[in-house]
Amino acid sequence: MARRETSVAGPGSRALVVDVVRSAVSISRVELAERTGLTQPSISNIVRDLIADGVIHETGSADSIRGKPRKLLAITAANRFGIGFQLGPETVTCVAIDLTGGVVGREVVPFDGGDLADRLAERFDDFIADLDLPRDRIEGLAVVAPTARPGDEDTGPAWAAVRAALTERLGVPVLVENDAAAAALGEFWSRRVSREQAFGSVYLSSGIGAGLVFGGALHRGASFDAGELGHVSIAYDGLPCPCGNRGCVERYASMAATVDAARAAGLPVEQKTVFSAYDAIAHAAVSGDPDAFAVIDRAAGYLSVAVTSMVNLLDLGRVVLTGPGMAVAGSIYARRLRAALAAGAHARHRHEIVVELSAQPRDAAGIGAAALVVQASIAPGHTAADVL
Ligand SMILES: [Zn+2]
């Protein structure tokens, strides 16, 4: 694909170079110029700045056809860290990653009551002390929750106020993000997905969300509401949804809907939280209980209808299934989705549509939160507007 070369290397060019080095693992300056479409002088300037900033380093050499060995460039992993907090109903999952997306620390602790900003600030101090991470190497904190969105002033906890209070108290940049969107960026970053790939993730938790990464940047939509996969309707005259639509896939395939379906099918369902009741059904399904399998498989079938529409609408090349709901029975969902895409993905004859399971589905949003911090730090200007 031909790219337009800009005469001045802006933040978008720096983000582009970081992203190509990250996904390539190691790469020469010549290859970088070929892959990015930037001129050799631009590449030289950007690489010099990135080495000076400690973001990338030279590592070994590759043989050149014309004799002179070419130095290879790679991301400097252990230099700096991003911290992500994933808020659950009763716990907070705390994750630290290095610049390559590798997890260097993880803790899950009970979390309830009190002033949210105070509690998060204390947790931050304890977490980096537990890991013995030097504070001056921390690039920031991102907090993710189902209700959180960047710029949200008036829903759920007042996220803008929480963010402002944390920024002042901690002295590092603080971001707030929706859990499904963060999980998508985390999967994109840690899997070293190339920015040329149209990438999506499906996040099954209390609701159903999706995250979309185009050109290496999260796609957010006009009001940070992109990715509401749960409210894609799969039936014109289906079940009414609190959102106002009918037939939303969340009414058929959310964890709560699956627990209800299991109960209706006569399966023993304990009256605990939706999460624990769902996990018990998922465990039974993968352990050979045919009734439990049928319930999960049906939910997977409903979800696959909505995800196939998403793939067709956006011409995605890769989809990752993630979130707590995929932790136990993800293989059942993946099998259903692969079958649905093999039969109904419009672009299936033109390119492969890869379906993968997250390696860490329960922690994906926390890892993604930390990846948001890393991306904002080493590749600033990495917004859709800069890239496209
Ligand atoms: Zn709905």
UniProtKB/TrEMBL annotation:
PROSITE patterns: ROK. The keyword Transferase applies. GO terms for molecular function: kinase activity. InterPro entries: ATPase_NBD (IPR043129), ROK (IPR000600), ROK_cs (IPR049874), WH-like_DNA-bd_sf (IPR036388), WH_DNA-bd_sf (IPR036390). The keyword Plastid does not apply. Belongs to the ROK (NagC/XylR) family. This is Putative NBD/HSP70 family sugar kinase.
